[in-house]
Amino acid sequence: SIENYENSLGKIYTIVSRLENAIPEQIFEEAAMVFAEILKAKSVHIYYSKASSHYRLAAFRGQQKYPRSLSVDDFPFIRSVIDDQKVFTNHQFHQHHPMVCAPIVSEGSLTSLVFVDGIPFTMLTQQFLNTLTVICRLVSNEVLKGAEFEEAVHLQKYHGDTFIMKAPWFHRLIAEKQAHATHNNVNVYLIEFMKNGFDHETIYASVSSLIRPMDYIGELDDNRYGILFTYVCQEEVTRIESRLMEKGIVVAEKEVIWGTS
Question: Which of 11, 158, 217, 261 has its CA 20 to 30 A from that of 237?
Answer without folding.
Answer: 158
